[in-house]
Amino acid sequence: MTNRLNLIFIFIFVIMITLLSRVYFLSIKSNTYYEELSKRNYISRVKKIPVRGIIEDRNGNKLAVNQMGFSILIKPHLKSKKNKEKLNDAIDLIVEHFPKQEKKKLLRAYNRKDSAYNHDFVKVVDYLPYQEFFPKYTLFSSKDTIKVESAVKRFYPYRKAASHVIGYVGKASRLDILKNELSAHNGIIGKNGLEKFYNDKLQGEIGYKDVKVNALNKEIETLDEKEPSIDNSIKISLDIELQKYIQKIFGKRSGAIIVMDANNGEILSATSMPEFDNNIFASGISVKEWNIMRNDLNHPFTNKLINGLYPPGSIIKMGVALSFLENGLDENFTVQCSGSIRIGNRNFRCWKSSGHGKVTFRKAIRESCDDFFYKGSLEVGINKISQTLDKFGFGKQTGVDQVNEFFGVNPNKLWKQKKFKQPWYVGETVITSIGQGNMLVTPMQMARYTAFLATGKLPKPHFYKANYEEPEDLKIPEKELSMLRQGMHDVTHHAKGTATRHIKSKITIAGKTGTAQVVSIPQSEKVRMKESELKYFHRSHAWLTTYGPYKNPKYVVTALVEHGGHGGEAAGGIVSKIYDKLYEMEYIKSRD
Fewer CB within 10 Å, N or C, the chain? Predict the structure, then answer.
C-alpha cells in the first residue's frame, strides 16, 4: 500500500513539474522570443556603406581613387503585359539621353534581377559620370518608374603605371559575397594586386542606423547608430614618378624591374612589362579588349615580378659560391678553366670557349666563369647547394604584399624524385650551379637575394608598412661576403668585368649579369650562335642585378629583359639611368 502511494505522489510531482516548466516557457521564454519578433516589426536597420579608401604613393600622389556619379534603377514588377509599356518607356528614356547604353542589355539586366519576391527598384545602369548625368538629374528623378542613386567608380589616374602592383577592383561574384558581407552592399571587391591584398583595409567596416518606424514605415526615432569606418586609405612605398620614368626608359621591351631599399625591403618601383590600364577592368572590359590582351605573346596580364618564373642564369653564382664556402671549399679554392668539362658522354662548356685559365672566387664572379662552378658543384653536391640557396629564399615566397606569389624551384634529389619519380644525375648538378636546368626564380626573389648580398641581411619586400618585418641576419661571415662583393664590383668596373662596357652611371655600383638560356645548345654546335642571330623567342633572357652605392648600399636594382640576350648589353644602360635618377631625386646622396 505504501509503495502504491509513493508511486502516486511521484507521478503527481512529475506532472506538476512538467506543468510549471510549460508555464515558465510560455510566460518568460516565449515572451522574450515574441518580443524579439515584434521589434523587427517596428525597428528598421539601415546599413551605412563606407567609402573605399584611396591608395597613395609615398609622396601623396593618388594611385587609386573614387569618382562620383549616379546609377539608374527601374521600378520592379513592370514585366507584365499591362506594365510593359512603362518598362519600355523607362528604358527608351535612358537610351535616348545616354546613347552608349544598349536597350537589349538594359532589358536583360532588368529581367535577370526582377522577380515576384523582389520589391526593390532594379539597378540597370551601374554608373554614369557626374558631369554627364547631372544636367539630366531633374528629368530622371521626376519619373515614378525611375530611381536615381549616387554611385562611385574606382579610377586609376596613372593608368598603365604600376598596374600590376596596384591591381584593380571588379564586380563581386557570388563566391566573393559569401566570403565578404560588405561586397554584397557595395557590389565591388579587390580582384588583384594591392586592391585585393589589402581589400579588408580599403573597403573598411560597415555602419548602421537602427530606427523606429510606424505602420507606414515612416521613421519615428533613431535608436542606435554606428558610423562606417573612414580611415580606410593606405600610403605605399612606391614613387609613381620614378615608376613612370622606368616605364618610359624600358620602352617596348618585355620583362621586369624592381627598385628596392636594400636595408628594409621597401619597394620604390616595381615594373612588370608590358603593363595595362586597370581602368578597363573597373569599367568593364570588352570581349575585343580581352582577346587582344589574352593573345599577346608578351603576357601583359602576368605579374612578372612575382609570377614570372625564369632560369636565373649566372646571377645565382654568388649564392652557389657561398654554398661552396659553407661546405668545405676554402677561400683559396681555384680551378683551371680550359673552356669545358666532360662528364660521361656530354661536354659541359664554359661560355668562353678558350677558357679563363686559373680562376679564383673573385675572378669567377667578375668574368662569370662557368667551369669554376661546374667543378665546385661536383665537390659539394646538389643537396648542399640547395640547402644554402634555401636560406636566401629560393623555392619560397618572399612574402611581398601581392596575391598568388609563386614559389619558384630550388631543385635537389628529393624534389626530382617527388616531381618526376626519377633519380638525379650529376650533369644536372653542374647546370644547376650556373642557374640553368630545373631552377626557376622570380624577379622579386632575385631582388631580395641581392639585398642580402649587399647588407648581409635578408629583408622582406613590401609596399605597405603593415607588411614590414625586421630583416633576417643569416650569420654569413663578413669575410666571405666581402670577397663576393669585390667580384660584383669588378663586374661593373674591371676591364674584364662582364658589364663594365655597359654601365655608365654617376653612382659606383656592384652587380652581376646573367644570360638564362630558353633553348638548349646542341652538343654538335662548336661555335655558339650570337643571340641576335636567334629567333626572338629563342633568345636568352637577360638579367642584371645590382646594388649601390658600393661602399654604403642603399638600393637594389634588379632588371630582367625577356629574350634580351646578354644581361649587361640588354639592361646595363637602363640600370645606369635608374641609379642616376635615384641620385637626381636625392634617394642616393653619396656616389660611392
Answer: N
CA–CA separation, 42 and 423 (whole Å): 74
For residue 208, the 8-state DSSP code is: E
Return the C-alpha cell found at 233.
586609405
Separation of alpha carbons 131 and 406, rounded Å = 43
Of 386, 389, 381, which is closest to residue 328 (Cα–Cα)?
381
Q: Considering only CA atoms, which of 507, 585, 583 is closest in space to residue 241?
A: 585
Query: What DSSP designation does 532 have?
Result: G
Neighbour-count burial of 517, counting CB atoms closer than 10 A to its CB (0-12 exposed, 13-18 middle, 19+ buried): middle
Residue 539 contacts residue 531 (beta carbons within 8 Å): yes
Residues 6+ apart with CB under 8 A from 142: none
Residues 6+ apart with CB under 8 A from 243: 158, 161, 162, 269, 270, 271
- Looking at residue 37, its pLDDT comes to 47
Phi, psi of 547 (to 5 degrees): -145, 160
pLDDT tens for 115-164 read 887 788 999 998 999 999 999 999 999 999 999 998 889 999 999 999 99
- Burial status of residue 539 (CB atoms within 10 A of its CB: 0-12, 13-18, 19 or more): buried
> In the 8-state DSSP scheme, what is residue 588?
-
Residue 147 dihedral angles phi and psi, to the nearest 5°:
-125, 135
**Cα distance between residue 134 and residue 131, in whole Å:** 6
Q: Which of 366, 384, 379, 264 is nearest to 330 (CA)?
A: 379
Rounded Cα gap, residues 559 and 562, in angstroms:
10
3-state helix, strand, coil in the chain (%, to 5): 40, 20, 40
Contacts of 312 (CB under 8 A, 6+ apart): 435, 439, 441, 446, 514, 516, 543
pLDDT at 41: 55
**Distance spanning both ends of the chain, measured CA to CA:** 112
Q: Which of 399, 451, 435 is nearest to 557 (CA)?
A: 451
Three cell numbers, residue 327: 661546405
Q: Residues 494, 499, 503, CA angle at the centre, nearest 5°?
A: 95
Helix (H) or strand (E) holding 348: strand 346-349
C-alpha grid cell, residue 94: 535612358
Specify the pLDDT at position 523: 47
Is there a contact between 566 and 556 (Cβ–Cβ < 8 Å)? Answer: no
Among 579, 570, 573, 584, which residue's Cα sits nearest to residue 516? 570
User: Any bridge partners for residue 546, and if so which?
Assistant: 511, 557
- Edge-to-edge strand ranges of the sheet holding 207-213: 43-48, 207-213, 219-226
Q: Which residues contact 505 (CB under 8 A, 6 or more apart)?
A: 548, 575, 576, 577, 579, 580
The cell for 494 is 674591371
SS3 44: strand
For residues 162-167, average pLDDT: 96
Residue 231: left if φ>0, alpha if ψ -120 to 50, beta else—which one?
beta
CB atoms within 10 A of CB 506: 13
Total residue length of the chain: 592
